[in-house]
Amino acid sequence: MINAWSLAWEVLNGTMDETYPEIDNKTGLWKEPQPYPYDNYDCDDLDYEIDLSAVDDQYAHHFAPKEKEMAHYFKYHEEEILKDIEEYVSGTYKGHYTGNSHEYRNVQTLDLMASKDLASSFCQANILKYGSRYGNKDGKNKKDLMKVIHYAMLLAHFDGHYGEPSMPSGNFEQMP
Questions:
Q1: Which helix (H) or strand (E) holds 4?
Q2: Contacts of residue 19, Cβ cutoff 8 Å, sequence gap at least 6
Q3: pLDDT tens digits for 41-100?
Q4: How far is CA 47 from CA 19, 36, 37, 58, 164, in A?
């Protein structure tokens, strides 16, 4: 522990420079001898990567939350594929196969299937349909692959892989 008495002791005994080396103004480094016996500070077993924003609310405004880390590279065009899937799925909510009257304009066929507990089977059948159609109808049509992936996502939802599937409340005004 460093306190005034320990510093006084070092000065009186002439060991101040060895015990508490000074910093060289030209290099910005400690003058010899180094105060720590190693250069690798990773071996101190301290975790300097702690996300303090999750520890307490009072710290949250000081630290930006960590973003979910993704691979820093993609080898097989995954980044473009994910973008295409996002665009395709977003486009499916723009009124296809929905009712015509105001109160049913956001009701999709899949909502009706879900209300009769048929959504999982419907999604699985469409995965088979579009998967087997790929390469046979309209050649190797990218849109068929997008449909397979989208129905696989919906199947994961309706089979409860992301929690209990929500059922529409009947208030379709709140739907996208």
A1: helix 4-13
A2: 10
A3: 555 566 555 555 555 555 555 556 666 666 667 788 888 999 999 999 988 877 566 666
A4: 27, 19, 20, 21, 37
How sure is the predictor about 176, in pLDDT bands with cuts at 50, 70 and 90? very low
Cα–Cα dist 176/163, whole Å: 21
CB of 117 closer than 8 Å to CB of 138: no
The count of other CB atoms within 10 Å of the CB of residue 8 is 11
Share of the chain above pLDDT 90, in %: 28
User: Cα separation of 1 and 6, whole Å?
Assistant: 8
Domain ranges of the chain: 1-37, 104-161
Backbone φ and ψ for 114, nearest 5 degrees, come out as -65, -35
pTM of this prediction? 0.54
Work out whether the CA dihedral 45, 48, 50, 52 comes out positive or negative: positive
Note the pLDDT of residue 168. Answer: 56
Would you state the structure tokens that stand for residue 82, as one six-digit string? 């994910």
- Calculate the dihedral angle through the C-alpha atoms of 71, 75, 79, 80, rounding to the nearest 10 degrees: 170
**Spatial separation of the C-alpha atoms in residues 167 and 110, rounded to whole Å:** 11
